[in-house]
Every structure is written in structure tokens, then in C-alpha cells.
Batch of 2 targets.
Target 1
Amino acid sequence: MLDQSSRRSAPDPLSEMLRGLRLEGVDYARYQMSAPWCLLFPAQSAARFHFMAEQSCWLRTPEGDWVRLEQGDAVLMPRGVEHALASEPGASATPLGHCAFQQCCGEIAEARGGGEGEATLFFSASLCFNVDAQHPMLRMMPELMWVHEMAVHEPAIPALLGTMSCELALDRVGAGGILTRLADVVAAALIRSWVERGCGSATGWVAAARDPDIGRVLAAIHLNPGEDWTVDALAKVMHASRSAFAERFASVVGETPARYVLQVQMHQARQWLERDKLRITAVARRLGYDSEASFSRAFKRVIGKPPSHFRAMEPPVPAARPIDASPSGEAGQPPGTS
């Protein structure tokens, strides 16, 4: 039997899984917009982060509602859903790709626009996680995460945002790198606070991850997706019989162990193909497939496109490149963004 200190130090399965969620690139820009103005941010596979440094603006949510962002507010959109920022609700929207960017301080891209009214300064970043937007760890999160709702429980967040505000205002050399790191920490603190506060209703995947037995199994799968996770192997992780495990897993998670393992493995395969540029045969081998053809069929069934689609993608855009600075408005988006 575990003593109290061992019990306290035992890792929480959900924390273990979230530990594997990390940023691999941050593309950023600064916006100085004078009223009236409205920018339409298109849907993308990377997460979006906005921080209001000076004055306020309105956010049009994915549902079409308008909510006010005050100075010092920040929002995170984990799955990069379409939305708009504006000086007032209903303002005529300009697609982000039509913005003209220029370099300031050598490394931060800045866009200016709008009319002749009151100016608003805000920072925006595209956050490229090491998993895609349809991965269970991101799919469980809400479309919008509000900093002001989390800051009460995360005392470090207001201080971090205050530091971001100073970096934005001072135009100092190295500000881009510091803003990148601050955005990384703020995003991680937001996600941690959301998890610790109960993840909303804590149903579905989150509830399964918090189940003492099933959570241990999910953590094992996510931490080692390339393992040969047979039902027998997973039952041993839960210390249960094969039949008892399979029944319990299906009732809590809502799908069979084999189906869940397949989803996690194919999302990992996409990362190996797209990010690490591994050959399809090498990925198939890593996941224990006897042939490239059988792996390709399984991959397309889960992801929706063949693995060759992701092998053919261009190399990732460096993190230092400003977001949406290209004429098409797609700079800074990770490979595979449509």
C-alpha cells in the first residue's frame, strides 16, 4: 500500500498527457488600428492568441456574438476558429491577408490601418502545437479561452501580460523573442488553469482522462503512441482482465480501445510525416504495420487524406516569420493549413 508521500507524488494522468502538449512555433505580429476598423481572422490549424495592450476592441465569436475585450484582456483559440476583431460591432471586415505589414525593431511585423479615430494596439500570435487541431487533447478544449476568467486562479498571468504590454510599447531589440516566450507561458498557464478548474462540465474525454483506471491507460497510450497497444497490453496497465477492461473502456471513453489507439497513432503518424519528414514506409514500420499499403488505408480512414498528402507538403515556416504577412494571408500557418 502506498504511503501518503507516494500518493501525493503519483502523477495525475491528465497532467501527464498535457505535459506532452507543447508549442513548437510561435508566429507573431503587432497591430495598431485606428477606428473604424475590423479584421477578419480566418480559420487555421494553428491556435490563435490575442492580447489587448492599449485601449479596447470587440471580438466577434465563432457563434457570431460580439463581446468586448478591455485593455489587458487576452483570449486563446486552441483550434484557430474563424473570428473577427473590430473597433465596434458590425464594422465592415477586412480579410487579414489584405493587411500590409512592415518590420519594426528588426524582428516584429507590424500592421497599421483603419480610419482616423482612436487607436488600439494589440499583439496577435499563431501558436503551433505539436499535435493537430483534431487531436483529442485539443478537441476537448473550448473554442475560446478567456484570460480574465482564469486570472483569478492564476496570479502569474496578470504579471506576464503586464510584461507583454511593456515589450509591445517600448520597441526594444529582442522584443520578438521575449513576446514569443511570454505567449508560450501564458498559453500553458491558461490550459493548466482550465484543467485544474474542472474543464467546464468535465464530461467525455476529460472525464475519462480523470478516471483513476482509464486515465492511466489513456496516459500510457498518449505518452507512447508507437507501442503495440493490444487489448491485453492495455488491460495489464489497468490491472484488469481483458474482458473487464474492454467493457469498462468502452463505457467510459465511448469507443473501443482499438479505435482509440488507432486515432492517437494516426495523429502521431501525421506529425512524423509533416513535421519530421519521415518516409511513409518508416512511419508504417514504427507503428508495426506489415506494409505501406495497409498503413495508408488506416491513415486515410482516420485523417481523411492519404499520408502522401502530408509528405508532399512544404517544410514548416520558421517561427520568426510574421503571421499572415504574405499576400495570401497564409504565412505563419503550419503545413496542412487549408
Target 2
Amino acid sequence: MKLRVGTFNVENLLTRHRFEQGGRTETAAAMSLFHFPRADERDAVERSLAVALEDDKRQMTALAMAEAQADLWMLQEVDSLASLQAFFANYVHRIADHRYGHFTLIDGNDRRNIDIAFAARRDLLGPGQVRAVSHKELSFAEAGLYDGDLAALGIPRHGKVFARDCLEIELEFGRRRLSLFGCHFKSMNNGREDGRQVTLPVRRAEARAVRFLIEQRFGHDWREANWIVLGDLNGYRHGLGPLAEPVDEGISGIEPLLDGFAVDPTRTLPAHERWTHFRRYWSEALERLIDSHMPLDHILLSPALAAANPAPPIRMIRRGLPYRVPLDPRDPDRSMGKLATACDRYPRVGWDRPKASDHCPLTVDLTIP
């Protein structure tokens, strides 16, 4: 049995026009140019602006998903089941070759209420063939994960492990079974330049918790079972600098999932292709701009799936990224003139926005033993 499995951080697929006051960058820039004497007037304008911007963005998000043609999707940063269903009905299904259903979303722990969601081709599964379990309540103590690094951050022993959730989806295809563990680990951005290092203990605990759940679920047979860990893990060891120079970023936090446990199929790709996110920022410490192509999104295979798929076809759909992103990290010319005239994006993609997302979809074609 062959399946194309995809993960995509769709970047704030919302039914709300903001998280909080000034909490959504898409509207904040334009709103900062105007003065509104009354709060209700400002709110009405911001709401209208958000609707217009969201329509542009979601057309491109749908284009990226339609191009990817995945059979199964694990999505991150989805506001609600209602927004998920509306997005597929009014955007994806207007352009995609597939029709999707089996929509699943369970409210998680994120303070902004952006959650992990699942969707599958409608004709692929029937009633009773999809089972969903949330692990949002799992605590550090229950999983035996509490340590001094977490205590130093002021995190309590009985606090919840997952910053969002680990959404377990079990699929039954006749005699074949496949378990998906959808994740969105703690972000590396905590408003500080050293955010990666400061938040590392949380991501490491999340990775160890996913491993704990898989070992609990399958027992001694975890190596022979068909399971996948996928999502925005916000962790990577090697990024890419200018000219695709490999940059060793040090411990990522997701090592518990990789060291002798799951297999990363992107290891078969050339180094310059292993990225799903781009960041360009000013480093106060170094007093210069930093460019980094980063593999934040992952599809990690069980040993059994990896053995059955030693070099599976992998795709990252990048035409929905904004023009400011160099799609080839090896290219030395990153001038605005070169990037803005590359002609390798969807219609109406902008320099910074609108865009499909700040991540690209990642898909892997697998044979399920």
C-alpha cells in the first residue's frame, strides 16, 4: 500500500482577527500607520483588514497543498475545527485533485489556541478506521521526564509536557495499521536572541515524551510497528548559511527521537535541499544580519517503515514562500533585484506577504508494509 504523507505549518489559520492587542503581525504593520480615536472603530477596521489579508493568504496555502497532493495531512497552527473545515471546503477543494475529510482537531495547550489538526483523503478511509487521542494532559512527572533544567525554568513537576499537544492518529487499512504522532514543539523564539538555548529543555522533554508514548503504545514491538512522528518540531542540528554553508547549531532538543529511535528520510537529500523555513534577522551580539535556512519540519519514520522505504521520494513545496526567501541556498546573489524577479512563485505572492505560510509543506511517499 502506497501513501503520500504530509506535514504543514499553515501559520495561524484563524477565525479571529487577532490573538490579543497588537498580537498579529499581518495587520499590525498597516494599522500602525493610522490613528483611530475610538477603540471600536479601530477594531472594525482591523477586522476588515484581517479578512482581506486572510483571503489572499489562504488561496496560496491551498495552492501549496494542492500541489503537494498528500493523502494524509498533519497541520499545525489551526484555530478550530470550524476553520479547518471551512478552509478545505472553500479553498483547498476549489483547486485540489483530492477531496479531504476525516477532519480532526482537539484543543491543546497553546496560549494562543492554535492547534494540531489532521485530514485525510475522503475515499481512503471509512467509518471507524480513524481513531484520535490527545496527549495534552501528559505531565513531566507521569512520563518520568522532570529534571533540573526544567526546574531552573520554573516549570513545575506536574506541569504539562506539550506546549501544544501530541495528537495521536491511528489509521486502519484492512490488515495494515499506521499510527501518526502529530507534534508542534516549543518555539525557539522567546523574544531573546538566545531563545533556542533557553527553550531547549522544553523541546527535549517533548521529544522524550513522544518516545515514551510510542514505547508505551507498542511495547517491545516498537521497532516493528508502523508509526510516524511528524510536524513542526522547531528543532534541527544543522542549518544552512549563505552559499548553503552547513552551520552546526549545536544540540537541538529532538535528539531523543533520532538517536537510535526514528529515522529521518531527508538524510538522503543533498544538504542544500533539507530546509522548510527561512529566517533573516539582525544579531545584536554579532552586529550583523544572519541568514539561515532551517529544517524545522520533520517526518520521522519507525525502523520498520524506514526499512521498507530506504530512499522514499520527498518533496518540499516552496512556491508559496515570499519572494524575500532565496529558494536556492547556494545562490550567492541575494539582492532584492534578483529575488524579486525570480518568477518561481504562485501568482500574487508578495515580497513578505501575502504568502502561503512561513513554512513549506513537506511530503514523503511511503509503502506501508
